[in-house]
Amino acid sequence: MADKGTAAKMVEVALAEEGYAEGPKDNETKYGAFTKANFLPWCGSFVMWAAAQAGFAGMPNCVYTPAGAEAFKGKGAYTNPETSKPQPGDIAFFSFDGKGIEHVGIVLKDNGDGTLTTIEGNTVPDGQTGSQANGGEVCLKTRAYKNLNKRKMPVFIVG
Questions:
Q1: Are the C-beta atoms of residues 59 and 44 closer than 8 Å to each other?
Q2: φ and ψ at 123, to 5 degrees?
Q3: Nearest to residue 106, comparing CAs of 93, 127, 91, 117?
Q4: Are the C-beta atoms of 82 and 155 separated by less than 8 Å?
Q5: DSSP summary character for residue 148
């Protein structure tokens, strides 16, 4: 069991939520209730809930993911994915449409091939169709963070 207030504890808490599904109403979750943003897309609420449950202080508000990314930038805690060295417990922001940040998740590990394993709220499992940014479930995901990744996956992580 990881120590409270650590990135390892946040990862432990988040992993225990894998498979959680919203409902009965669209975007209704305990995470949204926690952040007082129920019935809204809840990926950021999931990240904030996991941090709070782990006793991790100082997590920027990332319910609205573009504002969350700006808050991380303001703390000097935002890096270019192409040059970063992701660690478990890091927060990763995503753009699936190329127009701006629309999703967030927690890094579990750097796979060493230009991809990450993450745990994310409000997405769909790998290999299934549905919205990556509003899919309704807590899932493990594999995401590319380097353009030249060995799996030749499209890059959605933004820096």
A1: no
A2: -140, -170
A3: 91
A4: no
A5: S
CA distances from 26 to 82, 86, 96, 117, 146 (A): 35, 32, 21, 26, 33
- What does R_g of the chain's alpha carbons equal in angstroms? 14
86-110 burial: b if 16+ Cβ within 10 Å, else e: bebbbbbbbbeeeeebbbbbbbbeb
Distance of CA 41 to the CA centre of its chain: 12
Are residues 130 and 153 in contact, defined by beta-carbon separation less than 8 angstroms? no
* pLDDT digit string (tens) for the chain, length 159 residues: 888 888 999 999 999 999 999 999 999 999 999 999 999 999 999 999 999 999 988 899 999 999 999 999 998 888 887 888 899 999 999 988 888 899 999 999 999 999 999 999 999 999 899 999 999 999 999 999 888 888 888 888 776
Q: Measure the CA–CA gap between 131 and 73, rounded to whole angstroms.
A: 27
